[in-house]
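Go through this one:
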Amino acid sequence: MNILLISLLACLVVALPSESAQTVKWCVKSQNEMKKCQHLATKSTELECHLKTSVTECMTSIKTGDTDAMTVDAEHVFQAGLKNYELRPIIAEKYTFERCHAVAVVKRDPDFSINDLKGKPSCHSCYQSPGGWTMPIGRLVKEHKIPWQGPDDMLLEKAVSQFFSSSCIPGISKELYPKLCKACQGDCSCSDREKYSGDGGAFQCLKSGHGQVAFMCHDGVPSSERQDYQLLCMDGSRKSVEEYKDCYLLKEPRHAVISRKDADSEEIYKVLKQIPDSDLFSSAAFGGKDLMFSDAATELIELPKITDSFLYLREDYHEAMHALKAGNPPAPDGKIEWCTISHAEQQKCDSLQIPRMECRRASSVEECIQKIMRKEADAIAVDGGQVYIAGKCGLVPVMVEQQICTDAGEASSYYVVAVVRKDSGVTWKTLKGRKSCHTGLNRNAGWKVPDSAICGQTPDCTLYNFFSKGCAPGADPASNMCELCKGSGKVVGDESKCKASSEEKYYGYDGAFRCLAEKTGEVAFIKHTIVGDYTDGKGPEWAKDLKSEDFELICPESPDTTVKHTEFGRCNLAKVPAHAVITREDARKDVVNVLKQVAASPDKLFKSEGERNLLFSDSTKCLQETTQTLKEFMTQKYIDMIEKTYATDQGKPDLVKACTM
């Protein structure tokens, strides 16, 4: 009987229709939006509409899972990313026009700069508008032009009223801040009842002489009158109105769909893509404007999963919004925070006890890059492939690892080599289908260079499908490029397996070589010095019995043969830049000063206990300061090689995509 019942139930399960796509619960803020949402739901049956009273109530409901998504402007993208919501942008709107560049417009004649605004009368398009208030005031506070210590000191509006001699800021409370309405010609409302309301009104306020500077969007100055006006630039200079792209306070980011960090963004995007653009970006039929989406949008763009509010908004806008809420940022104190990516690195960093340097832990180089961008850390030493990624995110190389210290000033470089065991039968010609050992995903020697040398521009070729299996720490744990990884050595429950840090025994140069030496893999892609550094009694305990003569090199120039490991000069895959310390431009001076102070004890800095290459390469003898640009440091030839691999491999890393949208 039980068997019969189970069989019947099994048949019922098979007969049931397959589960439909996940329902997307959209949050709307008005009855008009609700009407439009219900219309869109007829085009995409997985769309469900939920009415709330405000943007903030919607954000709360998304956080709790009551709803899933909504579209917001840039200021609310910032707010949604804060700790009380922890939401992220998942889809961006695209437009055919440029978003508002907030500019400071002045008459051509008076001779003053952005640094001389105190005591001047000002005109603003509207209170709380991007061009007239949030972007210009946020940027001026962030850059310490308008002094304000934050809401505990006084309200921002009061600080602004103390800064300008008089103003017209339509929409602000005339009763609370009469001085900020003093230059107005009406009721100081953001409406037709105020002559100086909006961009056009702010311009008229300036033109009539009621103000000496107008804060507005770049396109608010009539083209017929632009020759009589100029823009104030943040560097203290002036430019013509037409040169707004080189002289603006902030640029307004695009509106974005926000959701929870763990939300299925692909599913939300798929549901929206079922709806015709003509329906998504049209609101007139529902009694409003810009309902759910901007009417001026032309399409929706899915964002990389790594994107958060900081990456989406960019540093200048994000920091200006932070200054608008919290006041002037503290002045740099000369201290730096070094980013570490493993427990062993953190231990070494702490033990150094370097004055003015603290240690900040992250899970990977990519997370360190993001922390440095956000000013949650200041520096880390990385390889060339990672210098490229950091450069695309606005960071700069400031010091280079040197293996030979000279006064010549030429930065170190090294050869990338493919190492095999002697008499293994592995040659460049027989490489396909073998087991491979890599320093890490998207790293120089371990990934970018061999990917370029092996796949070049061959369609559909990737290191994933070229080799049968391998260990490339940082790769997808479910992929064949994590199969050979060893982790920390635990038998079960090893979260370190294939992790891009020294917690994975096969991570880095020494890890990739160990992977080969222990016969886990058949070829290792590493730096040319590694074989010599880890054999003939020079290496750690696991390498004590290794002989240098037991390892050889293979290369495209000698496809049928192997050569001695010392012949890297004629048998290599590429010559690439050395590892470098990366930081933000504003932290360059402090990072260089701190590292120069510890240069007197290099043994302490470049020696690793227990593990190898912690914080810096163990072979480093000194650090050399560099003022080269990213392109000069890496060379165009090497940059081209990296970018070619993106076309044939798995595409650009998500962090590069997020930083270059």
Notes: Residues 393 and 659 are 5 Å apart (CA to CA). Residues 2-15 form the longest helix (14 residues). The chain has 23 helices and 26 strands. Residues 1-20 have pLDDT under 50 and may be disordered.
